[in-house]
Write a structure and sequence with these properties.
Elements: H1 2-16, E1 25-26, E2 56-62, E3 70-76, E4 84-88, E5 96-99, E6 101-103, E7 106-107, E8 110-111, E9 114-120, E10 128-133, E11 140-145, E12 156-161, H2 168-178, E13 184-187, H3 200-217, E14 222-223, H4 244-249, E15 265-269, E16 272-276, H5 288-299, E17 307-311, H6 328-340, E18 345-348, E19 354-357, E20 360-361, E21 375-376, E22 382-386, E23 407-411, E24 415-421, E25 426-435, E26 438-448, H7 455-475
Parallel strand pairs: 1-23, 12-13, 13-14, 16-17, 17-18, 18-22
Antiparallel strand pairs: 2-3, 3-9, 4-5, 4-10, 6-9, 7-8, 10-11, 12-24, 15-16, 19-22, 19-23, 20-21, 24-25, 25-26
Helix pairs in contact: 1-7
Length: 476
């Protein structure tokens, strides 16, 4: 029995160091290239629903701070129609309704359809709801599942997608994600890539992308983060209002987290507290985003939501030649907060490749210290870049050589990630390469929670586990 308990103790020690013990790997995999071109407009994934004024581009996101509300958005193209949503817990029986509102916008000479958004609040946790939008024979029906109640041991599975676009590679990523079993998407920015087009085609490509993602986004919440391709500053087309299309089409529950902008906000979902930041908004000291984040960290309660996740578009650590050091400004401002608050993971996109760091930090560096290299830091988050959704700009395959010490794994392929939270202490992470139609779990590991698996709590957990196992041996 003593030998068995010793093995168990060694097992826990090995687990506690799992995230930081392997030498860095640069994958030698070279994928068979699919064309990085947008899917033709006549493809069925862009099909307009049949019927006069039928709702299209239906998508949902979380509508409050704690997961008991959703915002449902859709577009009608022929006339405004109704902004009402009918819903209930039995398919085809809608005993409740909510009234939303509609808007539209112009971009160059393009005029959008009528964009509707409606808040369903006061929902029950862990409940399947069916909902209907539109009216008459052109109405459409969907469903969604609310998350479990806020609880430190609530299990939940997130998908992570970035830089998606609307190419054949994008479709491969989306289809693979949809069979992953994940319950919500953490989206890392760069949605439609419509800004790569000109004139009226900018708006039209937002419409096609909305229809493209509906197959997933109408049934589960996508948590939005804005990227550079959402800025759409195009003075040559007399369009100088930034994020215009994005803000009209993809609402966020920013007011629920006391934010002053839809571009940065926070939600709590199951056992996770998710903070969304804007890489392309002011973030230095005393700006609105800086002041909001300072207060939001104070609202984080790791006893209730132990998993602390940050989303942004530009990675703070990146060893790819593409976009190298672009996140340095935000790193210099916020990294010390991430370490101080024991953030578990920082997810980013922007670089069209996959990369995972070790737990490292560079908070000791300043202009006079000269100690500029990141160092191992057990209190730091993991930094993971998932900018490989499949857009038409193609892959970023120019990694720096040699691989930096802070980089654990990197590969230039298309894919998505999943983070499966099991309880307050452990989660399973997978990055899935999409290789010519096959899903390959290429990078995976057990993630240890930064709050509950701190040194003192780890000792208590080991002792509790050892006592439990010893009791089973004695009584068994």
């Amino acid at each position: 029995m003593r030998s068995f308990l010793r093995l168990i103790s060694i097992f826990f020690v090995l687990l506690s160091y799992l995230e930081n013990t392997f030498a860095g790997i640069t994958s030698t995999f070279v994928r068979s290239q699919w064309p990085s071109v947008d899917i033709p407009l006549d493809n069925e994934v862009f099909a307009v629903p049949k019927g006069h004024n039928a709702p299209q581009q239906v998508h949902i996101t979380q509508g409050d701070y704690d997961g008991k509300a959703v915002i449902i958005s859709w577009v009608t193209s022929d006339e405004p129609g109704s902004s009402e949503v009918q819903y209930g817990t039995t398919k085809g029986q809608y005993d409740r309704s909510a009234e939303g509102n509609g808007t539209s916008y112009t971009f160059y000479k393009y005029k959008s359809g009528y964009i509707h958004r409606c808040l369903l609040d006061g929902l029950e946790y862990d409940t399947k709801y069916y909902y209907k939008v539109g009216s008459g024979v052109s109405s459409r029906e969907f469903w969604f599942q609310t998350p479990p109640t806020i609880d430190p041991d609530a299990s939940y599975k997130f998908g992570i997608i970035g830089d998606l676009g609307q190419t054949h590679n994008s479709l491969s990523t989306l289809q693979h994600y949809m069979v992953s079993g994940a319950q919500a998407v953490l989206f890392l920015g760069d949605l439609s890539y419509a800004d790569r087009y000109k004139y009226n085609d900018v708006g039209l490509r937002w419409d096609t992308w909305g229809r493209f993602i509906e197959q997933s986004a109408a049934f589960q919440p996508w948590i939005w983060c804005a990227g550079n391709h959402e800025i759409e500053y195009m003075p040559d087309m007399e369009e100088i209002d930034t994020f215009k299309s994005y803000l009209h089409r993809y609402p966020t529950p920013y007011l629920a987290s006391k934010s002053t902008s839809p571009l940065w906000y926070a939600i709590r979902r199951a056992s996770a507290h998710v903070i969304v930041l804007s890489s392309y908004s002011s973030f230095v000291k005393y700006t609105l985003q800086w002041m909001w984040l300072r207060e939001e960290f104070k609202r984080v309660d790791r006893e209730k939501t132990p998993w602390l996740i940050v989303l942004m578009h530009v990675p703070l650590y990146n060893s790819n030649d593409v976009h190298f050091m672009e996140g340095e400004g935000m790193r210099a401002v916020f990294e010390k907060w991430f370490v101080r608050n024991r953030v578990d993971i920082v997810f980013a996109g922007h670089v069209h490749a996959y990369e995972r760091s070790y737990r490292i930090s560079n908070i000791q560096y300043n202009v006079s210290s000269g100690d500029r290299d990141p160092v191992p830091d057990k209190f730091a988050p993991l930094y993971i870049t998932v900018g490989d959704g499949g857009n038409q700009e193609g892959l970023a395959g120019r990694f720096s050589d040699p691989q930096p010490d802070y980089s654990a794994f990197r590969e230039a392929s298309y894919g998505h990630s999943t983070l499966e939270i099991k309880n307050r202490t452990h989660a399973f992470y997978h990055w899935n390469r999409n290789d010519d139609g096959k899903k390959v779990a290429t990078d995976s590991f057990i993630l240890h929670n930064q709050y509950w698996v701190s040194s003192s709590r780890r000792r208590k957990l080991k002792k509790r586990c050892s006592r439990s196992i010893a009791k089973e041996i004695v009584t068994g």
